[in-house]
Design a protein that fits this description.
single chain; 178 residues; mainly alpha; 7 helices
């Protein structure tokens, strides 16, 4: 039993096999530590990697590891948020940053789980709808992206690195003429 298990009331589940369990990050609401500390790391028994168990066995290295995971996750999330209004995988990068955080922080696991549930619910709602509803959802999405680009170009100006024809076309859009 390590310090973390002793702190949590001696709940030693190291003999349990969680390798095939897809719910290793599930909230253990019956445990006495389920909701009182949102900044704590995942349970050490959920670790299948020896190197992480070694890092977590020493408080100093565990703190440094948590800081590194937090900073790396923050950088990835910020890069993803910057990418969101642009064509490409902006939201995918944001979710990748959340996954980095979720490897160490339970609150991030909960956010990631909720985001996944919301995406699945949206998909389940949209798929059986008729084609015109799907088309309307696409139209609203394209309009939202267009509005974001318009606001971006309104604030920062039309970028000069675009092809001349695109730049001239954009400058004809109301509000973007220089």
């Amino acid at each position: 039993m390590n310090q973390t298990d002793a702190h949590r009331g001696g709940d030693d589940r190291s003999g349990d096999d969680h390798s095939g369990d897809d719910h290793s990050g599930d909230d253990h609401s019956s445990d006495d530590h389920s909701s009182d500390d949102h900044s704590r790391s995942k349970r050490s028994v959920d670790d299948d990697w020896e190197w992480r168990r070694k890092i977590r066995s020493k408080p100093q290295t565990h703190l440094i590891y948590r800081i590194v995971v937090g900073v790396v996750g923050l950088v990835v999330v910020v890069i993803g948020l910057i990418m969101v209004p642009f064509p490409g995988p902006g939201w995918l990068v944001v979710f990748a940053g959340l996954a980095v955080w979720a490897s160490e922080f339970e609150w991030a696991q909960n956010v990631l789980r909720r985001a996944r549930h919301t995406l699945e619910a949206w998909n389940a709602w949209l798929m059986p709808k008729p084609w015109w509803v799907k088309g309307l959802a696409l139209l609203v999405t394209v309009a939202a992206v267009g509005a974001i680009f318009w606001l971006l170009f309104l604030v920062s100006g039309v970028p000069g690195y675009l092809p001349d024809t695109v730049e001239e076309w954009l400058k004809k859009v109301p509000g973007l003429a220089s």
